[in-house]
Design goal:
By secondary structure, the chain is of the alpha/beta class. It contains 13 helices and 22 strands. The termini are far apart.
């Protein structure tokens, strides 16, 4: 598991990664102390219960790095499952993640009113994935999967390097957290500690034999079949699972998907580096308009490295609005306006309305979200149209206006020696005749210009 590394901050980061990815077969060491009292978890068949949950199972998938996006995903999924009175299954296939995110996921699981089942259906659940699995109310694995490798490491995102940590000041709090949130669900305390201190890796048979998991299931239908009728102790009482075999997936929202993408260490590092370099070079070269692109990349990189996504959303919306007003008054080839539109769209997408960040009903939150999306789309289209017209106008060749060839009407009698007024294109001009006498009311054509005086001739009469 890893916590966020921030430049100029003394606090280091932790990453529980799958350092020992190959399964290490270890001889089980007997309990070295008294096993904590079982307060939550799977109870024997026939145990008394105070309420029932079911019949449908809700499930989510945690793939890749465990980060703040996954924390939001789990929290919103728990609320969704509670509203449906359904147990929640968390499918784990992850090499690890951030320590603070994993700990907060465990705390959310403990506070759930419905049983939360951790299930490694394929691949592995190493590091932070193991911490989450052993802390669920019911832990299960499929054949061919593995768990373990929970030793914390110091991780530096600027170089991609890590260093294993053996400091007791860091190790002991993790061990105590396992005692309070995993061992109290019936997990073997000694083996839990060995995951951290020895980087043990276990398959499903070993994990079941060492009392780290509760059962082995081939797939989701098999898991539901084995859970049906079970009694699970939660913080709010004993719940009996009455399941009919059906299960539905709770999909992550746009906010979760964007944050999870940005949390990729490589992508976050690239965004930070590019954003910083673009800002420096554009300001140094005098092309300040392009610094807005650097600012956008910098903010996204900060969000991927752990900066509060709610603050990121507000900053993006504020900057996007300011940039749109600047583009309207001082056009910058569309760069400023384009960056403003992107900031608005991403800021709206990162707002916490879809993940319970606002204390409003889900229906009202959805209306707010779609309204903001609509506003952003309209503003984006309007800005794109304005930019298109500006570019179109700038690409046109210059046009030199000339009054020669314009047609008008004489207001006075005009001759070669006598000047008078004519009306041309809605304007009064003084003119004289190039040839012959022109009577008032005659139609004329401008053939030349002598200073402010137009030289005209009588227009040929049209024949029908």
């Amino acid at each position: 598991m890893r916590t966020r590394w921030r430049p100029r901050v003394a606090a280091a980061v932790l990453l529980l990664v799958g350092v020992a990815l190959a399964s290490s077969t270890v001889a089980f060491a007997g309990d070295s102390g008294q096993q904590p009292e079982k307060r939550m978890g799977l109870l024997p068949r026939g145990a008394p219960y105070s309420y029932t949950v079911g019949p449908t199972v809700v499930y989510i998938e945690i793939n890749g790095v465990i980060d703040n996006a996954m924390l939001d995903y789990v929290k919103s999924a728990i609320r969704y499952a509670e509203d449906r009175n359904s147990p929640l299954v968390i499918l784990l296939d992850t090499p690890g993640g951030y320590l603070d995110s994993a700990i907060n996921i465990v705390l959310a699981i403990d506070d759930s009113r419905v049983p939360v089942i951790g299930y490694v259906e394929r691949g592995w659940a190493l590091s932070a994935g193991t911490l989450i699995l052993v802390s669920t109310h019911v832990a299960a694995m499929a054949p061919g999967t593995q768990i373990g490798s929970m030793q914390p490491v110091m991780y530096d995102p600027t170089t991609g390097s890590y260093q294993p940590v053996n400091e007791s000041k860091i190790i002991n709090p993790i061990l105590k957290f396992l005692d309070e949130h995993a061992a109290t669900k019936g997990r073997n305390e000694t083996q839990l500690h060995r995951f951290v201190t020895h980087n043990d890796n276990l398959g499903p048979q070993e994990a079941l034999r060492y009392h780290v998991i509760d059962l082995i299931a081939d797939d989701m239908p098999d898991l539901i079949r084995k859970l049906n009728g079970s009694v699970v102790a939660t913080k709010y009482g004993n719940a009996r699972l009455l399941l009919d075999g059906s299960y539905v997936e709770y999909q992550p929202g746009v906010r979760v998907q964007i944050l999870h993408l940005l949390s990729d260490p490589i992508l976050a590092g690239v965004l930070l580096t590019l954003g910083t370099l673009i800002i420096l070079f554009t300001l140094a070269s005098g092309h300040a308009a392009f610094a807005t692109i650097g600012a956008l990349l910098l903010l996204l990189g900060l969000a991927g490295n752990g900066f509060n996504p709610n603050y990121t959303a507000l900053i993006l919306i504020l900057l996007g609005t300011i940039l749109l007003f600047i583009e309207i008054h001082t056009p910058g080839f569309g760069v400023i306006g384009g960056a403003g539109v992107l900031m608005l769209i991403l800021g709206i997408a990162l707002l916490p309305v879809s993940s319970g960040g606002f204390t409003v009903s889900p229906t009202y939150a959805s209306r707010i979200l779609y309204t903001l999306y609509s506003i952003g789309a309209v503003m984006g289209v309007a800005t794109a149209y304005i930019v298109y017209k500006v570019i179109q106008a700038r690409r046109r060749p210059p046009v030199v206006w000339s009054i020669v060839g314009a047609r008008g009407r004489a207001l006075d009698e005009i001759s070669e020696s006598r000047e008078g007024f004519i009306m041309v294109e809605g304007e009064y001009w003084k003119a004289r005749s190039a040839q012959g006498t022109i009577k008032p009311g005659d139609e004329v054509i401008v053939v030349d210009k002598d200073g402010p005086i137009l030289i005209v001739k009588k227009a040929p009469s049209s024949t029908s």
